[in-house]
Specification:
The complex is a heterodimer of chains A (193) and B (254). By secondary structure, chain A is mainly α. Chain A is built from eleven helices and no strands. The chains are: A mainly alpha (193), B alpha/beta (254).
């Protein structure tokens, strides 16, 4: 699989054959869904479960959709909406359960993927930043992740969150400001200068 | 905000692919293999074989197999280049004991029934009551029948080797002619079984070993005519001094 297929190609594939189309949907959007899940919840195993559950829910919903409805679909915001709803429900259920909440509040320090790729410095930077994301208020964190990790346009984020674009922009800028306060840009090894 | 920004660059670098194996937790894979009775469609997950249909049940098309799988499991099913490990040898030998199955869609009772059915050797049959006895639920004979009828992986878990205690072949996931052909293809002594059942006889014993068996048991089929005795029930055989066979573990119908 080289370049990811366009959304037009993905929905056409889904309308033509739900199961083969699902493979296209997975290929095109697994990274966006997994990155969102991982950077919002902060835990590798939970992000995998969330991603699997999101795509499974999507498949089950699609089995009830007719061709017209499938063709009209915007797969990426649709999948991310499902993922974030699942995450909020899981987070709410977890907060109702007693014990272990203190541990759960801290993002998991290890990230298998980062341990096998990239330099030590890069790992440190990524891990530190991932941890800092966990310290942002929920709405700011989600907005920053969708805008700067997943690279979604503001309009699409507004759609996923069901908020006006202005609100989304302010969540993003406040989130970034908070991250800069928590972690000033390093001077020593900034290779831009 | 337009100049390069260390923070947003670092955020962009947090974008990662999920492990490639994650897709196998969501979607199953299917392939078409040659079985003892023509084509067989086999679906499997990362845990094992999860669904089997004979070609005739899906008009020998992948699309119908995928649709049938979707209706039952509501999960995506993608084509696979090769069948799950061990399927081809299992079909060749009739021995599926080493295969891994994914029976998560079954109840605990159904799994017990299917595991017992797996122990019936090729070329032999056992009554529904035998399975009920094996799983410690001797009265659940009817429930055993419906569990076998829901077997998601027929042929590979040989529910076709379970028959009625009166000698009738009984029901099958597909249909009775398919059950009969599968049993005949495995070399089951169907003619002899029907002949015995017609006379009300369900067990055979050897007066040289002193052992009584189901008539399809490999040990029973070695008994020569001069030493062979037929029985209506295990109780009668035991009264005549015979012990039950360790291999086929015969029990009387409940």
């Amino acid at each position: 699989m080289s370049a990811p297929p366009t959304d037009g190609a993905v929905v056409a594939a889904l309308a033509d054959d739900l199961d083969l189309g699902f493979a296209e949907l997975w290929g095109a959007h697994r990274q966006a869904v997994f990155s969102t899940a991982l950077r919002v919840c902060g835990r590798w195993a939970e992000a995998q479960d969330l991603t699997a559950e999101t795509f499974l829910r999507a498949y089950r919903a699609l089995t009830d959709y007719d061709t017209e409805r499938i063709t009209a679909l915007q797969p990426r915001p649709w999948l991310l909406t499902i993922a974030l709803n699942l995450w909020r429900n899981a987070a709410r259920d977890a907060s109702r359960r007693p014990a272990t909440t203190e541990l759960d509040a801290a993002p998991e320090p290890t990230d298998e993927r980062q341990d096998v790729e990239g330099s030590v410095l890069r790992n440190e930077t990524a891990r530190e930043l991932a941890d800092l994301l966990g310290m942002l208020p929920e709405e700011q964190r989600i907005a920053v992740v969708l805008r700067h990790v997943v690279d979604l346009p503001v309009a699409e984020i507004a759609e996923v969150l069901g908020r006006p674009e202005g609100t989304v922009k302010s969540h993003i800028s406040r989130g970034l400001r908070r991250l800069r306060e928590l972690r000033p840009a390093p001077g020593g090894h900034d290779d831009r200068t | 905000m337009t100049e390069p920004d260390f923070l947003t660059d670092s955020l962009a670098a947090l974008r990662v692919d999920p492990p490639s194996a994650l897709l196998d937790k969501i979607a199953a894979r299917w392939s078409r293999v040659e079985g003892p009775m023509g084509p067989l469609y086999v679906a499997s997950t990362d845990e094992g074989i999860s669904y089997v249909r004979i070609g005739a049940a899906v008009h020998d098309t992948g699309a119908e197999f995928v649709a049938s799988f979707r209706e039952r499991f509501r999960r995506p099913l993608l084509p696979s280049e090769k069948p799950p490990a061990g399927v081809l040898p299992a079909l060749r030998t009739g021995k599926g004991a080493g295969l891994a199955f994914d029976l998560r869609g079954c109840t605990e009772f159904e799994r017990d029934v299917l595991r017992a059915a797996q122990r019936i050797p090729a070329g032999q049959v056992r009554p529904y009551g035998w399975i009920a006895h094996q799983i410690g639920r001797p009265k659940a004979v009817r429930a055993v029948g419906s569990a076998l009828g829901h077997n998601p992986v027929p042929v590979l878990i040989p529910c076709h080797r379970v028959v009625r205690s009166d000698g009738d072949l009984g029901e099958y996931v597909f249909n009775r002619p398919v059950k009969e052909s599968l049993l005949a293809a495995e070399g089951t002594n169907l003619g002899e079984l029907a002949d015995l059942a017609g006379r009300g006889m369900h067990y055979v014993a050897s007066d040289t070993t002193g052992i009584v068996c189901f008539p399809s048991c490999a040990a029973a089929r070695r008994i020569t005519a001069a030493h062979r005795h037929e029985f209506r029930s295990i109780a009668l055989a035991e009264r005549a001094g015979y012990r039950t066979c360790q291999l086929c573990q015969p029990v009387s119908a409940a």
